[in-house]
Amino acid sequence: MSWFSPILMIAVPLFIAFLIPLLGYIHKKAGLYAMSLTLLFNMLTGFYFLPKVMVKPIRVIVAGYKPPFGINLAITPFSIFLACLISTMGFLVSLYLLKDNTTETQEKFAMLILLVVMGSTGIVLTGDIFNMFVFLEITSISSYALTAIKKDRKGSEAGIKFLLVGSISSTLLLLGIALIYNQLGTLNLADIANRFSQMNPKVAFLAVSFLFIGFGIESEMFPLNAWAPDVYQGAPAPVAALFSAVTVKAGLYAMVRFLFTVAAKSVFIKLLLVFGVLTVIVSELSALRQNDVKRMLGYSSLGQIGVILFAVGIGTADAMQGAIFHFVNHAVLKATLFLSVGLLAKAAGGSTMEDLKGIGKKYPFVAGVFGIAALGVMGFPPLNGFVSKMLILMAAAKTEHIVLIMLILAASVIEGVYYFRVLQVMFKEPEPTRIEKKAFPVLSLVPLVVLVFAIIGIGLFSGYLMPYLKGAAMDVMNRSTYIAAMLGSNGGAL
Amino acid sequence: MIGPNNVILIPILAGILAYFLGKVVKPAREGLTLGSVIAVCYLVFRMPFDKVISYSYSFKLPYAFGSLSFGTNALTSFFAILIALSYLFIAFTAFALVKDKDYHDTFYLFFNIVAGSLLGIVYSRDLMSFFIFWEMMTWSSYFLVIMNAKNPRKTGLTYIVFNVAGAYAMLTAMFFVYAAAGSMQFDKVATAIALMPNTKVLFVSILFAIGFLVKMATMPLHVWAPDAYTESEDSFTGFFSGTLSKMGVYGFLLFFATIVGFANLKGISSIKDTPTVGYVIAWLGVITSIFATFRAIVQDEVKRLLAYSSIAQVGYIVTAMSLGTALGIAGGLYHAVMHTIMKLLLFITVAGVIYRTGKDRFSELGALITRMPLSFLAVLFGIIGLAGMPPFGGFASKWVIYMSLLKSHNYFLLVAMIVSSTAAFLYCYKLIYGIFLGHPSSPDLMEVKEVPAFLWVAQVPLMLALMVFGMLPGLLVPYISKAVAALGFNAAFNSTNMYTLSAALGGFNGFTVINVLGVIFVVVLIWYTLFFPKSKKLHRLDIYYAAETPTEETPLHYGYGIGAELHRIPWVGASLRRHITTFYEKFAEQVNGIASVLKDILFNGDGQIYMLYAVLTLVAIIMFLGR
Amino acid sequence: MRELLTNTHYIVLTGVLILMVIGFFGALTKKNLIKILISLGIVDTGVNLFFIVIGYLNGKTAPIFSKPGLTPQQMVDPVPQALVLTAIVIGVAVLALGLSIVIRVYEHYGTLNVSKIKKMRG
Question: Under 8 Å CB-to-CB from A315, ≥6 apart: which residues?
């Protein structure tokens, strides 16, 4: 089965994505089904390779050049774990889209979503920094287009802001890569990591700063995330779900991989700690006074990202484990929230507090799903958000960051205020009479059911995930293992 | 053998099952709850009371935190029994009252989860499981609070903010000790705290105390309580004020007596042979009870009066416990039991009255004694207990608390507490007068029926319990002694039989007291029947005032105004006009203001500024770190 | 590779710096969305030029086997050129998409002033 390699997780979606416009001629819905099937394929491939990679990292060589030359895929526990997460979330969102979408944009939708998922998968799987940049750009460009896909006022405005800031990110990334290439003459991540100390310290610092900001924009770190709330508000709900579950995770992966494995700069890791806490506080405070629930969820998503950045910034293996767990939980929870709000907003004709008044009485199931996910985000036991939050804070306690813990917990109280406010608006206001109750398509509810089971299941059976999390965290923390696996002559080439 | 971990699971699973099965077969909700109640009571009573058993690990699920540990000892069993019995009585109340409400499904879901979490709190043997169940209690009780609230927005948010903030204060302290101990096990944490420097111990104690004081609704952290108690679903309120608040008591004892140890705290700094922290908290408790008592007197809503009364009564418990003496803790535990019984009884009865009349204010009620004699009797028993008068149970517990204050020479605390206890007579009287005596406020009150029969199942045993504990005050002594011993204290009582309660400063024989009072009662009864036989029954409109004849519509129920004059008493009136709520509202306003300004400045909508942020951050990083 | 920098390099590097400063200045001060996009394009050009400079070796030829007998030692580094080609394509894609979104924005707002396109804020 030598043809069956993880590179298919990138190649197949790319191929299908460009095939989709043609498929449109066969059947109107063919593109959407092709998207879902491709993402299902990606998911199954990911889970097929997950246990193998946990044992031994895989190195996929493209076009016959051995590392450090040529483009290669570096598939380590952390990357395959995230690839699985990304493709699973992509698949669930695509199921939701099968019935959700309006007519004329279907093919573009399907194609762009495939490209976003493919790009994000590429970011986490690649072992080449320029390749990572290219995948990041594919993801970003598709994201700009997806944000503005409805051609409405909000989408266009969010799209242009996203594009402007994203351009800065791509410029800085390219500059950073150029500096590194200038010094080391290589683009292979493991090779850069291996020889990073040979760089002129001043140039190295400049390069890391550029890349830090570049990845910071992609991973929605304060103060580089100002575009994000607009995007979450302006983009269609499933797209927002995809952004918070998939693209941000890829951006965070790039940040973590670069700072821990490649550069190993402790100053910048400490900086993440500071920026993480800032992100949490600013985002939660900003979420407090929102009237649009989707925008509020956007801010809340930023807050969770802040928690992840904080955890990453602690810089211990325990904290990393918690952070990676929070990747999963945040993806699951935010996807649930955005998808359920998407359904409710469609029924109510808008996503502001006034629109959603009493909607919980009309659609108890979907609103209940929203409620469970909200409890999960706030970190109430026994749901999944609680477990990862505790792991992160326990790791923070071990490193004596008590003040930061207090700040994050204070922000969590604020989080409680605005989520419970939404729940009260949904369930305690009188039932709206203007909305006619009509059933949601079953296919849109399937992902919600799966996600709710995930929220509760991960919360209760978190132990089953721990070996994978540990493997992924070890992968991040031990850069020498990564370098050896990717550069060594006995590297796990297929 | 079925360990505590399984006991916790029974109500939780029953609740979830009841929700889903109830969608198909409606009575399944009641059925499963009943089954769970019976199972929990059976298992809790079967567990050996004072044997220390620890069960490591939980549910056989692989869990991220390794294992959660559970166990029992005398203190745990003491509270577990309290919870199990309250669960039983409240379940029966709910069977009658929640039957045709539209939140019938969610009530049983959350109610059972709350019961399970309370058991979880007392059975847990490490901080992590303690916190898990504490948080589960918070969110599940939140839904019961807003379920039927008139003003869910304010009540719900205040409740959740205070309780979550309290829980997070506790959590911070937890992490603090975890960092030192490297473990969350109670015993390991205790060892680590013993080695900590004094300032850290104080810090941790204060944070933990905040968490528990919030739950016990001690001033100035009580703000959530009056609204939440008043507006929560009627049949749940008894559980809420009677049992949930006792989790604060349990946590307080657990933490201060076993984990930190009063001796340790005393070593850091002490006032009058009491740890300073404890002394301050004792004063907070007593101040709480004074203020809450006065506030209770002026209330017009029945449940709000009881809510303030509950705050005041728990204040006594706080004061007694925080002295850190064996007698004080024994008094606190004794009063915890009595207060649970009284508040269950009163809230259940009031819930029944509200259910039958649809009215919840004294000004709308009155003269129900003829229509609801059993409920009248229940409230009568309840207020005699609440006022701490012989011959019922409330007397014994108050007496132990007074004794503990005397013995530790805290005379000012004692005086303050007596002031509050005396003032409590007023609201006790208002409670029974406003509902059952005087004139009916409206004619339709004369058509109501006695509370539903399911409530009698709760009322009668609770009344009997009050009477029995009054008659046999020594009955609880062995259990309290064992619980106090489990906290590492020597025996507080020297009673030998169940008729007497005696401790360091003396004792009394409850059996004699009740007999003497019984004899007096009979004598007075006979005297009245012999010498006033000619009293005749009057219609309620057989009165005239200012030459007018009242009609059916004329309001004649004036007695509900008891306490209105309090506003004219100089100091009391001023205190009643001021609310600490204003302070918190101002604070919330400030936070909201900051949030608004912050988001408007930072996220001002200009894409170019967003680009500028990126460039400026880069420049800042290069400038500050590049050197 | 630092030691290989020659005067040619420095002259072009100055050009890179000028391009980038102009670009960033335009992107951060001009209010017209199209001008901002053009400025970002100028920054991109600067970065691309920077890449080329890195790979440029004085006196070497293009990395194409255009004449017989040409050895790799006589060529400049081919990798940056490949990278730049990719970067240019990406830049074009972003620009095209950006302009098409700008058209939508203009339809909705009737202005191209970036400071007036802020219905979503706070």
Answer: A266, A269, A270, A273
| Rounded average pLDDT over B319-335 | 88
Kindly give the interhelix angle for B127-146 and B245-253, rounded to the nearest 10 degrees: 160
Query: Quick one: pLDDT band at residue B58, thresholds 50, 70, 90?
Result: very low
Could you tell me if B405 and B333 are in contact, meaning their C-beta atoms sit under 8 angstroms apart? no
Q: How far is A31 from chain B (nearest CA, A)?
A: 34
**Contact between A164 and C36 using a beta-carbon 8 Å cutoff:** yes
What residue segments make up the domains of chain C, in order of their start? 2-116
- What are the helix and strand counts (H, E) for chain C? 3, 0
Q: For residue range B241-273, what is the model confidence (pLDDT) as tens digits?
A: 889 999 999 999 888 888 888 878 877 777 777
Residues of A in contact with C118 (CB under 8 A): 157
Q: What is the ipTM of this complex?
A: 0.91
User: Distance between CA A304 and CA A307 in Å, rounded?
Assistant: 5
Q: What share of chain B is helix, strand, coil (3-state, %, to 5)?
A: 75, 5, 25
DSSP symbols for B93-148:
HHHHHSTTSTTHHHHHHHHHHHHHHHHHHHHB-BHHHHHHHHHHHHHHHHHHHHTT
- Partner residue facing A182 (CB), from C1, C27, C122: C1
Answer whether A93's CB lies under 8 Å from A154's CB: no
User: Nearest Cα to C49, choosing from C58, C41, C61, C60?
Assistant: C41
Architecture of domain C2-116: Orthogonal Bundle (1.10)
Q: Is residue B55 within 8 Å of B4, Cβ to Cβ?
A: yes
Nearest to C120 among B605, B608, B612 (CB): B605
The residue assigned the tokens 């070996």 is A467
Can you tell me the distance from the alpha carbon of A314 to that of A318, in angstroms, rounded to the nearest whole number?
A: 9
Give exposure, B195-228, as e/b (b: 16+ Cβ within 10 Å).
ebeeebbbbbbebbbbbbbbbbbbbebbbbbbbb
Distances (CA, A) of A347 to A91, A170, B539: 24, 38, 59
CA B544 – CA B226 distance, rounded (Å): 39
Is B605 close to C31, i.e. CB distance below 8 A?
no
pTM: 0.92
DSSP state of B545: B
Is C98's CB within 8 Å of A167's CB?
Answer: yes
Residues of C with CB under 8 A from a CB of B: 24, 27-28, 31, 36, 114-115, 117-122
- Tell me if A472 sits within 8 A of A81, measured CB to CB: yes
- Best of A116, A129, A157 to mutate (most C CBs within 10 Å, chain C): A157
Residue pLDDT, tens place only, A280-334 = 999 999 998 888 999 999 999 999 999 999 999 998 888 999 999 999 999 999 9
